[in-house]
Amino acid sequence: MEGSVPPSSSTISRTALLVLRVLTFVFLLIALILISINKGSEVLENGDSLKIKFSDLRTYRYMIASIVIGFAYNLFQMALSIFNVVSGKRLISGDFGYQLDFYGDKIISYILATGAAAGFGATMDVHSALSGLIGLPFDSFFEKANASASLLFVGFLFTAIASVYTSYALPKKT
């Protein structure tokens, strides 16, 4: 279109940051649902049933805690980003707002990364231990746990990318 003004780089950055936060929200929500409903059951040779659920393993409880913390922070930041994109103003102005974005994104990305790593590690170790000790693979249970850890890792990646955007804003404002 002739005469139209292209969007400013700050508008593009605000929009990109909002898209990253929405994607993080979606991936963390799916990861949370997947791990929290995960249950497994195998039948022993004597006919007894052995059951396992996510809360039986502390590592998966840590993974859920990291998802919930990341989810809550991301929900808060998503609301701030929506306000920023719609109004063009920051709800938390001044240096504190930029530092909150920068340090919050860094801390939350580390929490999400450790949650994903713990989930991957537990899945590999416990799955091989159960298969080797009692011959029961619980394949479906561990596949879902691994899928949840993978989604959590993708949420970490989006948060890490968002932290790059917030790091660009920090030196300009402080």
Structural notes for this entry:
The protein is built from four helices and two strands, in the order H-E-E-H-H-H. Strand 1 and strand 2 form a beta hairpin. With 174 residues, the protein is mainly alpha-helical. The chain has a domain at 55-173. The model has no long low-confidence stretch (mean pLDDT 88). The two termini are 38 Å apart. The longest helix is centred in the middle third of the chain and has 41 residues, at 94-134.
Residue stretches low in confidence (pLDDT < 50, at least 5 long) are: none
- Report the sheet-strand fraction: 5-15%
- Estimate the global geometry from the Cα principal axes: elongated
Compute the average pLDDT: 88
N-end to C-end Cα span: 38 Å
Helix and strand pattern: HEEHHH
Q: Helices, strands, pairings?
A:
Layout: H1 9-36, E1 39-43, E2 49-53, H2 58-87, H3 94-134, H4 139-173
Antiparallel strand pairs: 1-2
Helix pairs in contact: 1-2, 1-4, 2-3, 3-4
